[in-house]
Amino acid sequence: MNDQGKTVSILGCGWLGLPLAEQLIWSGYQVKGSTTTPEKLNLLQAKKIEPFLLNLADSAGLENIPSFLDADSLIVSLPPRLRAGQGSQYLNQINLLTQALQQAGRVQQVLFISSTSVYQDVNAVITEAHDHQALKEDNPLRQAETLLQQSTAYKTTILRFGGLVGGNRHPGRFLAGKTNVPQPQAPVNLIHLDDCLRLCQEIITGPGQNEVYNACADHHPSREEFYSAAARALHLPPPQFNSKEPCSFKIINNEKIKAAYRYHFIHPDPMFFF
């Protein structure tokens, strides 16, 4: 498919957004990228990304948003920072974004980068069809999904990634040297950056659709097996696990996205991520 002339805007040029922008440019797209950091504007420009300084947390910093949303597709790759207690602020940002999308009226396709953290631990395999049983409806990411899905002005694809690995995110550092780590036998649900990038491009290249996809590697080694091996790969002390409490887990099924795009994961087994 020739994508010459198509414009994609990426809200959030961080761990995922920046390499995704580079990949899309290489494929012939025109790419606009946003950052909240003035110092990063030159980096974006150097990579042939049209740079925008946008901060949805500050209504005074939205003067550029109509131009930013003058695009065929929008990829929302904003970190929600839920562990920092910024869930309500994140929802306010997504609400502002949906209003701006309605006013701009140009974007036809939205790809929202979500997470499998919207699912509860139900000690079972979870597919997209199990939404009503397993979803944490009070999770800010889940609420953000709903906000975007409510609009009929554009089509929204929700892409729920497992735990993110690759680039500067080496899993050997995540738990190295820690003690009393819970859930040693719980299976991991992880995805490598290479697959994140490829799947995003598959979705953007195709027609816009109102769909939800889970995306994580095919295999699910235990937390103890995976994080111990990852730490040793960096010559770091492996974590010490506490096996006394009952195992609580979920296994994320990825069959829907593989069938929809005839996709084979580049990194199907997390034990070979490092």
TrEMBL record:
Signal peptide: none annotated. Residues 14-179 form the NAD(P)-binding domain. One of its GO terms (molecular function) is aldehyde dehydrogenase (NAD+) activity. One of its GO terms (cellular component) is cytoplasm. InterPro entries: NAD(P)-bd_dom, NAD(P)-bd_dom_sf, NAD(P)-dependent_oxidoreduct. PANTHER family: NAD(P)-BINDING DOMAIN-CONTAINING PROTEIN-RELATED, PROTEIN YEEZ. This is Protein YeeZ.
